[in-house]
Design brief:
single chain, 489 residues, alpha/beta, Rossmann fold, four-stranded parallel beta sheet, two-stranded antiparallel sheet, 10 strands, 51% helix, globular, membrane, transferase activity, Sugar transferase, transmembrane helix, Bact_transf
Length: 489
């Protein structure tokens, strides 16, 4: 039975059930209605929490300085300011970094208003001091209470149900991307194909298919979808998309258009109007010397500080490696760095001194058969101490010398071997546009457990979307990845 007949059968059975049991169907609470109720309840809790935050902060200021103006006005003006910056919209119900930015925006706006009011109207300089203290306290408490609410209620919030529309191959790619990144708060509940699927396994064999574009509305009603993600496809022209948008909005369903570009950070995308037509502008990756200079300086400062603080540990580990098995304490290997320039990378030795000569005997155990990497789980060439060092990435610490020398960065793609780069295509070679890193996206996303193509995708994503905040996030995630030790062998 093809997809259209299946969707028709499902829609028909739903209509029969509705006719046979009208009272039963009338009393059914849909997932969309449950979410609206949750959002309403959560919104009330947020408003109460925000008022309490402002009242607490202003009361502390009142106790310290004995002025009643801030204590009287701040609990009233603070929720109003949050409303103005849209901190109570559907997408800002206490979630994510965007919520913190809106809270900061509200505090700055009220602070500016306090300065103008004090200077032009009241003529009281002391009031500005009290207002700044009260706003700082209100913003901090608001962020903390919203985080607490997110911890208590976020788990109870059902993921948003998503229907995806597009070519079968694009739908499979989209489903695999969501699954691989563990998209928070989203759950695919169905798909509508714009073409017949090609032979081969689907990314998610459990994802039900409800026919083609003509079945989108019935699929939305059947699944209770709250979001419809439409992927680029020539079969959906401008008129079809407009009609689909009208129909979905009439159902209370949000319409999202998937971009043609993958692995592009949202910070690089802006919407611009060109000749009256909205266009998505993709900002070029930040690779200029001026943008990278702070990273270069910070890398070397942190590497120098790390070597200074870790010198006793490095000496102890060097002695242990030297006497745990025959061979030197350090392992030196030629790697390829920025713009294809080779350099010598330092690590603590974790294998037998003749490990390279034994590699051919273990070729059949290589887990990474699709790429140039050679990875063997429970590699017999690894020493007992070496397995411990690898599990907690202690063998990588001497690479701080490479960072200090300018050959590597704290964060970046994995430094490849020279022979690996011989088979690089034009796309993979983009990994060499930045310095390799001691840690990176692939290290905090699974390390050696990742297939070659996924490791390359993550490295390219880092190269194209680099920012100082991304570096900071990777460094924070590195701590957890090292502690878990997953994928380290």
């Amino acid at each position: 039975m093809d997809n259209n007949r299946r969707a028709h059968r499902l829609g028909g059975s739903m209509a029969v059930e509705s006719a046979a049991y009208p009272d039963k169907m009338r009393n059914v609470v849909t997932p969309r209605e449950l979410r609206r109720k949750w959002q309403h309840d959560h919104l009330l809790k947020l408003i109460v929490a925000d008022v309490m935050s402002a009242a607490t902060a202003s009361f502390v200021v009142y106790l310290c300085h004995g002025r009643s103006e801030v204590f009287t006005l701040l609990p009233l003006l603070w929720p109003a300011a949050l409303l103005v910056v849209r901190a109570y919209g559907k997408r800002q119900l206490g979630y994510g970094s965007e919520d913190h930015r809106r809270i900061a925006r509200a505090a700055l706006a009220l602070g500016a208003l306090a300065v103008l009011g004090s200077e032009l109207v009241l003529g009281q300089d002391r009031l500005v001091h009290d207002a700044v203290l009260g706003l700082a306290g209100a913003a901090a408490l608001t962020s903390a209470l919203r985080a607490a609410l997110r911890g208590r209620l976020g788990a109870a919030d059902e993921p948003r149900r998503v229907l995806v529309v597009g070519h079968p191959d694009a739908v499979d790619t989209f489903a695999a991307s969501l699954a691989g990144r563990a998209a928070r708060g989203l759950r695919l509940v169905g798909a509508c194909y714009t073409a017949r699927p090609t032979l081969g396994p689907a990314a998610d064999p459990k994802l039900p298919v409800f026919g083609g574009p003509d079945n989108i509305l019935s699929a939305v009603r059947r699944t209770g979808a709250e979001l419809a993600v439409v992927l680029p496809d020539p079969a959906l022209d401008e008129l079809a998309m407009r009609r689909l948008g009208w129909a979905l909005h009439g159902e209370g369903v949000e319409l999202l258009l998937g971009p043609m570009l993958g692995d592009v950070a949202a910070s690089r995308l802006t919407v611009r109007t060109v000749g009256g037509v909205p266009m998505v502008h993709v900002r070029a990756p930040a690779r200029s010397g001026a943008a990278r200079l702070p990273k270069e300086i910070l890398d070397r400062l942190l590497a120098a500080l790390g070597l200074l603080l870790l010198t006793p540990l490095l000496l102890v580990l060097a002695v242990l490696v030297r006497f745990s098995s025959p061979g030197p304490a350090f392992f030196q290997q030629r790697r390829v760095g920025l713009d294809g320039e080779p350099f010598t990378m330092f690590k603590f030795r974790t294998m037998l001194h003749n490990a390279e000569s034994l590699r051919t005997e273990l070729a059949e155990l290589n887990l990474n058969t699709e790429g140039p990497l050679f990875k063997v789980r429970k590699d017999p060439r690894t020493t007992a101490l070496g397995r411990f060092l690898r599990r907690y990435s202690l063998d990588e610490l001497p690479q701080l010398i490479n960072v200090l020398a300018g050959h590597m960065s704290l964060v970046g793609p994995r430094p490849p071997l020279p022979e690996e780069t011989l088979d690089y295509d034009e796309v993979t070679r983009r990994r060499l546009l930045v310095k390799p890193g001691l840690t990176g996206l692939w290290q905090v996303s699974g390390r050696s457990d990742l297939p070659w193509h996924e490791a390359v995708r993550l490295d390219l994503s880092y190269v194209d979307n680099w920012s100082h905040s991304l570096d900071a996030l990777i460094l924070l995630r590195t701590t957890g990845a090292v502690a878990r030790g997953k994928g380290a062998y």
